User: What shape does this take?
Amino acid sequence: MQLGRKLSEGFAVDLEADVLEQPPVEARTVEVKVDLEQVEQPARV
Amino acid sequence: MRWRTRHREHSDQPLGGFKLAHPMLSADGSRIGFSGVTVGRGHVYRVVDDAVCVQGGKHSCPSRWCDCGFYCFHDQGAAEDLACDPEHRDAVLLQVAASGRYRRYERGLRYSRQRVKAVQIGRCRCGRPATGFADTGSGSVGWRRLVPSCVACVGTRPRVDLTTFGGLAGAGVTVTCTAPPGEPESPAGLVALLSAEMSLLQARLDDMQARLERLT
Assistant: This one.
């Protein structure tokens, strides 16, 4: 492509491109096991 | 010694432009892309993509010392003029949003990041408005090159209709055929065509009858 004489240079922001390029967020289930015997009880005043 | 100050710009919005490209379909049919018509004809880019130096340079695009980067015209007419070149007849017109680092020229931009906003196709090679894309049989590793085609001309080749192509392109990309619907074939033209075919058949029958008479 012949674009002619160069005039200037710069930087342009495209927020939409940033959004489109983000990979889709996958929902994940995380199993958490808590041993209540091991949970430190709060100190009583 | 005094350095010459360059004119620097900053835009909070992408810059619009128009360009030609060849539509491409991944080998597994799950993705679409585009290849350039001039410098980047051997490279396939996605709907949103960052430029890479097709000369093999490790620099960032668009480099001052190289011709790498995405290209587009400011005006749609300039891209349409380029499409008149027989070499580019199978290309489609893209409306793009240019962003990142860019270099502005009189007729267009050379830039680092591109988002395809719209794909416009015209006529099939037969003259009818194209209704989809057909596999050309050419391409590059992992990608098949497509060509705008009407239903009649696609034949037995793999075909991708406009809706499917738009779906693979993703949200925000419109795919349209800009060619006006063709004139329906007139009855007079059909009669002339059928008359010619009947005359041809009659001539072949006469020839066959003459051969049979010679044999008997």
Observations:
- The longest strand of chain A covers residues 6-12.
- Strands of chain A lie at 6-12.
- Chain A has one helix and one strand.
